[in-house]
Amino acid sequence: MGVQENNKIKITHGGDLTAATREFGLPAKGWIDLSTGINPVNFPDLKVKDHSFRILPTSEQVTNLLKVAGDFYQIPTSMSIIPSPGTQAVLQHIPRLFPKRKVAILSPTYSEYENTWSRSGNEIIRAGNIQELKMGDVAVVVNPNNPDGRRHQIESLIEIAEHVETLIIDETFCDHSSEVSIISKLQMQNIIVLRSIGKFFGLAGLRLGFVISKTNITNSIEEMLGPWAVSGPAIEIGTRALLDKPWIEKMDGILSIKSKELDSLLTRQKLKIIGKTVLFKLVESNNAQFIYQTLAKSGILVRKFNGQKNWLRIGLPGIKSEWLQLEAILHECSNAINDMSK
């Protein structure tokens, strides 16, 4: 997402190639977008039946999707699940369920949590560690965290839930890290879990996610989202993707290998990795702004952070030429930085 500020485009989220093009021009060969942390190899079976476009989704289709998702996420029978058009749409509505609360957000993290809760008039507490979440009526944790990849043990999260009114856990980056997912252990009734198939499955544009919690919470969110919140094509493709165990297992292995390759590439260019998941690396450098600008001028977009000027988040490249171009430009940056320091 980009916003206009004094005739200059300010990039506030990853993936806004329109804003990047306005600032840097359109690269001759198009953008290599490494700013989002989305799997560059998407689930491939995207065929959609004509009726998915032509008619409204049926209750049977939604029920089938939720059964498949429930099995995939190992949801206890005591919990309820609803589909959503991605997680962002849910973030816009949840604060309406908890007005005038102290909201403790484990920070730094995805900026839309603070944006949405503060717009609803809630008091924001930026928690620096997991224990500080107890200062809020509502606590928010992204696990694994975006952008630094921090993980939190299930036992620690359950303990936090015992001290707050409601605990919201965003597991958007959890598909490759199922061992840290709290879903199969859910017993308490004051936890809301958000999931998405956008990252691991490489289907962010499909806008499909899920909310898992007790029935009265999911019913309230479902009413806010309104009827037919999820499209027929999203239901059809999402159901097929969650059922494709061979592809999921194969992709797990591929991402593990590619993640290590990116670790190695960044280390060779003497960039300090301070956080990571399999889909992105967070690096710290005193020259982060120079590196960001140099990469962008060469057609490679990574994620910068207005609040942390020394940070860059770099996602996985796709095809071989993208890997080679990333390393080549980072090598040029390294040489330029060495020359400037002489």
Any idea what the radius of gyration is? 21 Å
- The gross shape turns out to be globular
Helices, by number, come to 11
Structural class: alpha/beta
Please tell me the overall pLDDT.
94
Task: Give the strand order of the largest sheet, numbering strands 1, 2, ... along the chain.
Answer: 4-10-9-8-7-5-6
Helix content: 25-40%
Distance between the termini: 38 Å
CATH architecture of the largest domain: 3-Layer(aba) Sandwich
Strand content: 15-25%
CATH superfamily label of the largest domain:
Type I PLP-dependent aspartate aminotransferase-like (Major domain)
Order of helices and strands: EEHEHHEHEHEEHEEEHHHEEHEEEH
- Ranges where pLDDT stays below 50 over 5 or more residues in a row are 1-9
For this entry, what is the oligomeric state of its chains?
A: single chain
Biggest β-sheet, characterized?
7 strands, mixed
At the third CATH level, what is the topology name of the largest domain?
Answer: Aspartate Aminotransferase, domain 2
CATH class of the largest domain: Alpha Beta
List the helices and strands and how they pair.
Elements: E1 2-5, E2 8-11, H1 17-24, E3 32-33, H2 50-54, H3 59-73, E4 80-84, H4 88-97, E5 102-106, H5 112-119, E6 123-127, E7 138-142, H6 154-161, E8 166-170, E9 191-196, E10 209-213, H7 215-225, H8 232-243, H9 245-268, E11 272-276, E12 280-284, H10 288-297, E13 300-301, E14 303-304, E15 311-315, H11 320-341
Parallel strand pairs: 3-13, 5-6, 5-7, 7-8, 8-9
Antiparallel strand pairs: 1-2, 4-10, 9-10, 11-12, 12-15, 14-15
Helix pairs in contact: 3-8, 4-5, 4-7, 10-11
